[in-house]
Design a protein that fits this description.
alpha+beta, two-stranded antiparallel sheet, 9 strands, disordered C terminus
Length: 803
Amino acid sequence: MSDTRRRVKVYTLNEDRQWDDRGTGHVSSTFVERLKGISLLVRAESDGSLLLESKISPNTAYQKQQDTLIVWSEAENYDLALSFQEKAGCDEIWEKICQVQGKDPALEITQDPIDESEEERFEEMPETSHLVELPPCELARLEEIADLVTSVLSSPIRREKLALALMSEGYMKKLLQLFQVCEDLDNREGLHHLYEIVRGVLFLNKAALFEVMFSDDCIMDVVGCLEYDPALVQPKRHREFLTKTAKFKEVIPITDSELRQKIHQTYRVQYIQDIILPTPSVFEENFLSTLTSFIFFNKVEIVSMLQEDEKFLTEVFAQLTDEATEDGKRRELVNFFKEFCAFSQTLQPQNRDAFFKTLANLGILPALEIVMGMDDLQVRAAATDIFSYLVEFSPSMVREFVMQEPQQTDDDVLLINVVIKQMICDSDPELGGAVQLMGLLRTLIDPENMLTPTNKTEKTEFLSFFYKYCMQVLTAPLLANTVDEKKSKVSLPIVNACRCLPDNFQTAQLLALILELLTFCVEHHTYHIKTYIMNKDLLRRILVLMNSKHTFLALCALRFMRRIIGQKDEYYNRYIIKGNLFEPVINTLLDNGTRYNLLNSAIIELFEFIKVEDVKSLIAHIIDNYYKALESIEYVQTFKGLKGRYEQEKDRQTLRLNSLLYPSRYRRDARTLDEDEEMWFHEDEDDDEGEAVEKSRPEEEFPESYGKYMEAKKVKESDDKENFPTQTPTGSFKFTFSHSAGAANGANGKPASDATPGTLVVKPHLPATPVTAMVGLVDYPDDEDEEEEDEEQSPRKRPRLGS
């Protein structure tokens, strides 16, 4: 068998039941002549010394844990463990062990607690002779009993034998009676031994023992034993807490005594697991698996029993929604439902579906709508937790309910608007509740979970509903302090409350959460959010936050604009150009000065994206309006690159225009045509034409009378309101932008708040085919050389020189 080396740590279990690290090395499985069998060898990675040499015995119980651990016992009190660095190595060694023992590698333990040979031997012996022989249950023998219980934990077979012995003749009940005697005598030594005994019995992991220990007669004595940890100077007071502090509240009287007993038992056992018992180590995690299962099945049984009692749940809902119910009583009812939903998470998917459908039929969502709008913080917090369970279970069920509401109620009390209001009005300085509610809203408006086969129109219908009834509430804090009150169409009470939001960290956090949600909408709700942004001039309002003293909020605003530009949608681009919306971004960049921080990098990345993606309309707008302010920034080549793109496009438009105006002067011979036809198969048609024109007719030969020609055409077409390219003294052409008077002010770097929609147009007045400015660019090889020269000559970053 070939060696398979893997890096491992070797552990051994000491007398205190703690794992000692024996060193790190590489494990292999090979035949050892001295041991007469396949063995596990671990050699130290430091000096190659032998850390472990263990024969794989056919009868040894090996156990695989957590994908990277293999644990086994070699002698009565000698336990070993290998902790692998990689899962692959653990799997390979595990397969070798299983191969030697003839076991299936899919198993996590290679031997049953009692193997077949032992079972056959037990059948031949008297009925109880195979059990562990327990000392008499007496005070003087407690130390002996404790040592016995502790010693068997390492061996699955001996644990099984001890469990069978403890269940016979009521031994556990006798031990717990001794606890009462020890406590009356204040026998601390005996109490410490009983702690070790009870803790060890719990680690035996036997459901039959748990049934005895957690019965009404015994459970408080079990808790009492666990109070006397030898490591503590003074015992804990767990029983006092369970009997006096922890009170069981019946929001509606439970008539079923079995159900009441099950609830008490589950709470106490959960307390033992979570509070009393120490957190198990990675090697002990499976020791309490049956205890976890015991709690799990108790919860399933409780949920099933409550769900089947229709009268009980109906009464709970009736009192929850009754206006006459006292606040304290309603708080208890909501907390009951919160625990009820938490217990339901233990159900199998099919049973959980039935559970939530039962709650939906009983009216859980209308009830939540009422309690989430209450002033009691505890009630609202519990209601939010219940709402999160429902959204996680079925977003479609919640959406279906809220879309039916406008027919029955006002906009300001819709369930989603109530949720948004709770998010905005969260009083927690850390906005923990707001963050949770924002996540729920995001789940509800996510188109990815709206693709249900039963309702193919859900996405369109719900998004239309959300933008009609809810989006104005969500954006109210953003719009409240910037919108003109005389022109504001938003008259919700929450908007008036938002107008006085203080400029503090909590408000900045809230606005950042809203911006995160809006950024998500830009990416996933293309049509609806685009219409809303343009109708409300939302981007302009958001960019006001670039001036915030909270840098994270300015970054959120910038991220929102970056996501819009990332859509590469010309409608968005024209909206940005018309409103001169780059101005606050560029001002922030210049005001940031020479600081190299995240804000600086994010703004540079925005312009780099525009350059790399070659967004022509934005490039022309940036260079025409802001290049004087940006040309001083030379620590990156982004803005020089934008200028280069702009000049290339300008030259290309000029050549294209002249080729159309003077076709006869650009007539080529047959050889040229043949060459160009051959090039057409390899290059873009538009770029070919531009290159051919450039080769055949240099710009210096353009006639001087072109300007006069254009002036004459303007006179003839005086009704045309477009501006046309005019020739400059250098022979090139200057392009002007045609939009409204308000937008025209943007050329001087001022925002155009009242601008009407317009477009960026470059159009010569020709009788034949018009040519627009939106033409693909060509990357000339000279560009890279120019950029390299700029990088070599660029000085360090300088502060803002002016705009």
